[in-house]
């Protein structure tokens, strides 16, 4: 359902052209939890920014459910970005909005009616286990709870894909495990495709069905998690 074909991305630097993505080909299936792993500098952030349409690749294509996402106009891009829900390492939630109003934000921007927003946000807060904290401000909740807000917000506009960029990297191991359980639960309940970008192998081992290993801007291995991380 996400088909990345012959993707290339270079940056111009004072020292010349730098190939952040040399060539990436990947097929991510509908409903799977797919991990993208690799050391710092491998090109993970660049790939994320190409998938969420914030960077334009130099060449190649990204197709989401049959719709080509590369080579679109700004207006088309804005519409397509809604199909991808982003979860960030730093949560990126707004300190002056309550939990409820943080989750409501993308729906407000999309022009959804107030009553519809209310029922949709209630449903999302229930899904991530935060109904009892809906009136709290970010400063009054824990890191794990902030990430639950981030996940609920990412799901608000019913995206086709949840793209998680180091979502658990700022959390302690126990909170990480809880967030991963939540993502697995959401994947089972809604069937949403989840792409997890991480440098933490434990994250991939815990929930990813398949994994691609990036190094120096290219995929060096791809396969079922159990095959990639075969125990000796
Ligand atoms: P990762 O997320 O795996 O750490 P990145 O995609 O951030 O990798 O970076 C891949 C390579 O591209 C790194 O060597 C990085 O320094 C370089 N890079 C990333 N963004 C830029 C940019 N805007 N300009 C120049 N080089 C960049
Ligand atoms: P991360 O580890 O999450 O990738 P970075 O600090 O590597 O964070 O990158 C943060 C931002 O800076 C990214 O948007 C990336 O594209 C950009 N960036 C990374 N490396 C470079 C670079 N060498 N020159 C310019 N921008 C860069």
UniProtKB/TrEMBL annotation:
All residue ranges annotated as the ABC transporter domain in the record: 2-232
Record key words, sorted: Amino-acid transport, ATP-binding, Cell membrane, Membrane, Nucleotide-binding, Translocase, Transport
Molecular function terms, GO-annotated: ATP binding
Spans through the membrane: none
UniProt protein name: ATP-binding cassette domain-containing protein
